[in-house]
Amino acid sequence: MELDRVVAVRVSSLGDIARLASTLASRMFLMPVYRFRGSSGWVYALQTIYKDYYKYYGVPVVYYYVAGEEEPGRPVRYILARADETGERVEVSDRTRTGWIAIPVINLEEKPGYMPDDI
Length: 119
Known about the structure:
mainly beta; 7-stranded mixed sheet; 1 helix; 11% helix; globular
């Protein structure tokens, strides 16, 4: 099946993905982050839909971050985020941690067909 490509927007850090996901969650839009191997390494992606964009019902937009090659270790199941008076900290983990926002990561076997080819 041929799928239309989404609008893909590359962000500069995993923290950008974490902030967007936590903002959506605070508005009761629970969006997991998808992780898959792209052409330049591991990609973290978050899909959103902007409704009523001009004449379209919704335009799918995928924000993504290319992490490159990650060190082997524990499985990636969550992005943990914490902001306090010392600043913002974002890391990946295989478990949640008290006092941190835990964003679920869904590990995909392959890149989804609707993602642009150069990701």
